[in-house]
């Protein structure tokens, strides 16, 4: 028997087409109909009439390490399940489980765990893996443990890809590393996104990486060679190269609001992707938390190592959208692009990021302040703000 949800009287957002007020019928995990008015019986009803609510395709976070006390590197089913269960509250319906620089065995264990994981009903869907490290620069390590950074190895990557069940979708790499160009070519040939990050590369080295197949930049501005008028660095290349999409952590701590605005104006809404880069303390009280064997002091605003280095974020996708709106006032098309459509396009996901018949029933419903009111994952209401009161 099909399970159905009828959403009525809601503004329906899209990355390409104009928004309109209408109804959305979800059946058996898919969107079955979208129209100005749908008159059918359903198992559940969401009446948004006169509420000024907007339905977005569910947010896609392609760079997240943890939340709610769980971390991908815990390498346990409970950790992935806990992470997947925590994300709908912020409007996220799918994500890339992101690893970090650790020993070969620790990364192997995390990837093996990912291969075996299946999200439960009402949880965000894990779309694959973002391998962040260990193929990065020790000069731009940030909170990635320097002692575990290694040169790119195709053989090791292939071993890890097999362990993950071919789930690795994005690899962060410093292209200036030994054999970096060859490694990027290998990734491109296998259809995996080579993302430039944690890199001290020159402008020219990034250009070479793009020629080899790099298409993405990990958390723009953070832990990369900065823009200088005589050496534009990774930042300059990221902003200028049309072939590169960029991630932005819009907590206004990792990057100044004006830097985020610059990225949006230069890259456009179709080449910018909002991420959280969140660690396990997201959603928990301030305190000391673990990140890759390192103590991280978490306040209500940020997460830092003892020396002050930022150690991921405690940002939610909901807050990222609200922050973006405070400086850019994006239209709905632009918001859909940077919260889901660009990520779906990069990952080659044909059933995500559109509220149209036949697409996955992943929906984030927000009010006029962009506060998430409800999140639906594969047709199941995974979060309802009214029920949390």
Q: Please, how many helices? A: 9
* Mean pLDDT over all positions: 97
Instruction: Determine the CATH topology of the largest domain.
Output: TIM Barrel
SSE pattern, N- to C-terminal: EEEEEEEEHEHEHEHEHEHEHEEEEHHEEE
Helix content: 25-40%
Taking the sheet with the most strands, its summary is:
8 strands, mixed
Strand content: 25-35%
Using the coordinates above, name the CATH class of the largest domain: Alpha Beta
CATH superfamily of the largest domain: Metal-dependent hydrolases
Tally of distinct domains: 2
Low-confidence stretches: none
Structural class: alpha/beta
Number of strands: 21
- CATH architecture of the largest domain, by name, is Alpha-Beta Barrel
C-alpha geometry: globular
CA(first)-CA(last) distance: 31 Å
Rg (C-alpha, Å) = 20 Å
Pfam families: Amidohydro_1
Domain Amidohydrolase-related: 55-381
Organism: Planococcus versutus
Keywords: Carbohydrate metabolism, Hydrolase, Metal-binding
Describe the overall structure.
By secondary structure, the chain is α/β, with parallel strands linked by helices. The chain folds into two domains: 89 residues, Urease, subunit C, domain 1, CATH 2.30.40.10; 290 residues, Metal-dependent hydrolases (TIM Barrel, Alpha-Beta Barrel), CATH 3.20.20. It is built from nine helices and 21 strands. The strands form four sheets. Strands 1, 2, 3, 4, 5, 19, 20 and 21 form an eight-stranded mixed sheet that branches. A hairpin with a 2-residue loop joins strand 20 and strand 21. Helix 5 packs across helix 6. The chain is globular, with a radius of gyration of 20 Å.
């Amino acid at each position: 028997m099909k399970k159905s949800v009828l959403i009525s009287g809601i503004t329906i957002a899209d990355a390409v087409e104009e928004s309109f007020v209408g109804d959305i019928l979800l059946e058996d995990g898919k969107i079955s109909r979208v129209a100005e008015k749908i008159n059918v019986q359903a198992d559940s009803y969401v009446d948004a009439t006169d509420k000024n609510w907007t339905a977005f395709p569910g947010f896609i976070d392609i760079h997240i390490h943890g939340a709610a006390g769980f971390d991908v590197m815990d390498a346990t089913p409970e950790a992935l399940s806990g992470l997947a269960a925590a994300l709908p509250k912020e409007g996220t319906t799918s994500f890339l489980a992101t690893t970090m620089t650790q020993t070969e065995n620790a990364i192997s264990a995390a990837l093996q765990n990912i291969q075996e994981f299946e999200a439960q009903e009402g949880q965000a869907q894990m779309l694959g893996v973002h391998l962040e490290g260990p193929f990065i620069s020790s000069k731009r390590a940030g909170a990635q443990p320097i002692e575990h950074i290694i040169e790119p190895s195709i053989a090791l990557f292939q071993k890890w890809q097999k362990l993950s069940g071919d789930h690795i979708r994005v690899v962060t790499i410093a292209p200036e590393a030994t054999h970096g160009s060859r490694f990027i070519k290998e990734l491109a040939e296998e259809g995996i996104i080579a993302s430039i990050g944690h890199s001290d590369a020159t402008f020219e080295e990034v250009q070479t990486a793009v020629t080899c197949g790099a298409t993405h930049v990990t958390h723009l501005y953070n832990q990369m060679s900065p823009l200088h008028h005589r050496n534009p660095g990774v930042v300059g290349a990221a902003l200028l190269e049309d072939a590169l999409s960029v991630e932005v952590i819009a907590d206004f701590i990792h990057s100044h609001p004006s830097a985020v605005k610059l990225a949006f104006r230069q890259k456009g809404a179709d080449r910018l992707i909002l991420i959280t880069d969140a660690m396990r303390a997201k959603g928990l009280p301030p305190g000391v938390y673990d990140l890759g064997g390192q103590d991280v002091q978490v306040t209500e605003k940020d997460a830092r190592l003892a020396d002050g280095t930022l150690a991921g974020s405690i940002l939610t996708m909901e807050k990222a959208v609200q922050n973006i709106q405070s400086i850019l006032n994006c239209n709905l098309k632009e918001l859909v692009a940077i919260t889901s459509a660009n990520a779906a396009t990069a990952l080659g996901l044909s059933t995500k990021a559109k509220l149209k018949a036949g697409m996955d029933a992943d929906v984030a419903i927000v009010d006029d302040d962009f506060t998430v009111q409800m999140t639906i994952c594969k047709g199941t209401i995974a979060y309802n703000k009214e029920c949390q009161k």
